[in-house]
Amino acid sequence: MTLRVTVWNEARHEKKNPEVQKLYPNGMHTVIADALKAQGFEVGTATLDEPEHGLTEEVLANTDVLTWWGHLAHGDVEDAIVERVHKRVLEGMGLIVLHSAHFSKIFKKLMGTSCDLKWREANDNERIWVVDPSHPIAEGLGECIEIEKEEMYGEHFDIPAPDTLVFVSWFKGGEIFRSGCCYQRGRGKIFYFRPGHETYPTYYNPEVQRVIGNAVKWAGLPAGTKLTYGNRKPIEKLD
Amino acid sequence: MTLRVTVWNEARHEKKNPEVQKLYPNGMHTVIADALKAQGFEVGTATLDEPEHGLTEEVLANTDVLTWWGHLAHGDVEDAIVERVHKRVLEGMGLIVLHSAHFSKIFKKLMGTSCDLKWREANDNERIWVVDPSHPIAEGLGECIEIEKEEMYGEHFDIPAPDTLVFVSWFKGGEIFRSGCCYQRGRGKIFYFRPGHETYPTYYNPEVQRVIGNAVKWAGLPAGTKLTYGNRKPIEKLD
Amino acid sequence: MTLRVTVWNEARHEKKNPEVQKLYPNGMHTVIADALKAQGFEVGTATLDEPEHGLTEEVLANTDVLTWWGHLAHGDVEDAIVERVHKRVLEGMGLIVLHSAHFSKIFKKLMGTSCDLKWREANDNERIWVVDPSHPIAEGLGECIEIEKEEMYGEHFDIPAPDTLVFVSWFKGGEIFRSGCCYQRGRGKIFYFRPGHETYPTYYNPEVQRVIGNAVKWAGLPAGTKLTYGNRKPIEKLD
Amino acid sequence: MTLRVTVWNEARHEKKNPEVQKLYPNGMHTVIADALKAQGFEVGTATLDEPEHGLTEEVLANTDVLTWWGHLAHGDVEDAIVERVHKRVLEGMGLIVLHSAHFSKIFKKLMGTSCDLKWREANDNERIWVVDPSHPIAEGLGECIEIEKEEMYGEHFDIPAPDTLVFVSWFKGGEIFRSGCCYQRGRGKIFYFRPGHETYPTYYNPEVQRVIGNAVKWAGLPAGTKLTYGNRKPIEKLD
Prior knowledge:
The structure is a homotetramer.
Chain A: E1 4-9, H1 13-16, H2 18-23, H3 28-38, E2 42-47, H4 57-61, E3 65-69, H5 79-91, E4 94-98, H6 105-111, E5 118-130, E6 144-154, E7 164-171, E8 176-185, E9 188-193, H7 206-219, E10 230-231
């Protein structure tokens, strides 16, 4: 079964910042979407300034995995849409949270922590090391991914300890960061992936694209049956 | 250093329900508080109907570990107080969440999930089995705690997988439940402990009292230093 | 790509015990193998009394996932073969450990603990509850699997806390047990699954068969690239 | 109650290598032992070349927490002594595994993996970042520990995912490493702590000493009661 992905983007930097426009003339979402299409997924896009941010009930009902990039305008995302996405994640939709979306409403709501971190825009080199080579998100990678220039994110990253930690980043300036973090919440699977500052061509990097594709496959894995909650009659004994 | 505990109680059942009044004439909080005092902690209490629910900035600043029981009136807890408690947990205050407080605003906010479950009021027997005997919260216990009559809680319990699972309950009616769950969030430690329905004398049980006392010691363990977040200057190199 | 499974069985009870012979006239391995073939896997079998226990270098090199059942004769498994299987697991072969194989040499070696537990042969009812409904091993199941009669296994089960706990069993006699446990070791994935006493028809149960098939799919998921260890030259700087 | 610590050292480098002799004239164990005495613990030492490696039944029976440093001569540690230590850890003795003891028999036996890693002796700078600031092993530290010169250890480190990951190291040469790893096995607690190459004065570093002391306190925390295993009579029903 072909997994259906919706690539969500705030898509504001691309309208305001010539440097970002040049890198991503049609928005970061189109680059990510094209990379996922090339890996065989069925892909749509949605952006902040569309009605309901492009995330109608119908769109979400037909999404197996949602990817999320935001930065400038987390506050502009309506709470009702955040609730809708949250509900779908607990029902089983996968969610891939990219870079500065660590501060998105949906990620903070799912984590329960501040999701704060340290950062520096100074063209640091980044090496993303695989610490869990058994994980399908690491499939096909070498021992680390080299990224020539990226924004630095440093610890302490105020998240729950990941259910599975797949990557840890090294930055030339002296910091490390838990940069590939898996979580299971309700019937849904969530993956946070660190790289992707808007002023760098990170989403054109084939290994970064591969990780996002691997994460779609993992987050889209089928899960258990529909759950029931609430008051429950005594269970009849077997014998 | 003597740990300072605040025992918080919704304290509404005790005012309305004669059965609960008879069991807990001065409120469940006084029974829990007395049990903790007897274990050498410095203990105060706070209840929903006090101003600021008894949880002023000053009270929280002087609390190492907060215990929380609520059931009927989760919705009456003001969001501003929930924010205040949340902030203190991330700063390092311990939090012990009791029984029906699985549905409290503060627990749901910290977990990021629905925290829903199955339940049945039918005088089930409960056996609380120790699955992590290395954990200090299990100190001094036998292999399981027997509780003659309790409300049943059953899986699926919609929580993040605990950072450490200490207890799993067996119920005569056919269910199991992850009933002792540790979480670390920010600098704070959180323990969810299942038993404690208001119509049973559970908080008089010496082993239940011991678990709450052990959990206070664990949640009150000192943690790392104060954290800093945000923009960061390049780190000078060592050589 | 079709996953290649080798179903390993001690296959001694089947030769000695008329009750087991009647249930599993061609050995438990053939019942498990047939169930996996029906789910689309490529399946071979191997047993203790074959040369090299049927687990030659060639067989293992062509096995994506190995299932293991043993009970009476753990001590008869040669250490050299255990080393061979261990090496293959760390390289990436999946391993599914069934029932009394909790005491097999390979499982104890991978866990590092005694793997001891409590047990009782008394026709207990077992209910295997799903506690992680997001997990692909739970796919297609209801909220619990009912098994009419099984041997009881009780906690404390002396294993490392699972990387992911998928199932917890309830037994009528009063015990609970962590009965579906995932581990990631090196590049390999390991799943322990509790039910399967030789005197019950457990491996004919379609839900038990489904769990084993789901576990094969999970343990056979592709992983990261080949790893290197040892002395390492200074890494040339990027700039 | 004062915790009783035994500091174990291979103590061979100190006899052969003038550089190490100069740094640690009475052996690394005396420096570690003195640092722990100064923190209020009751401390003894034991070394490889003593009878039974200094780890008699009596010594272990009176040890709450054992620290272990080895490098050259892992193979000279007798298997019977390894079994004895393993048994005591599962019974509840804490174990702190230092630096090159990642390859010790006892650590490999407890982990079940190869425990292999990358390494380089090239005077790398190391920064040991706190990733779990809620953990008592991080108590009193700043956000990272700076070590001017150390041997590099790099990922992939072939260990089970830690039950709790407390520290991650950054190395100037381009690597990261999970350098503070907690495990719970049976009733025992285990902490692996990376720094401590014999040709550097690492064990004189007050922050390194503090971490080892904090780890002793954590690994020495009281645990659950003595466990029973094996055949079990039907449990009489409560009602």
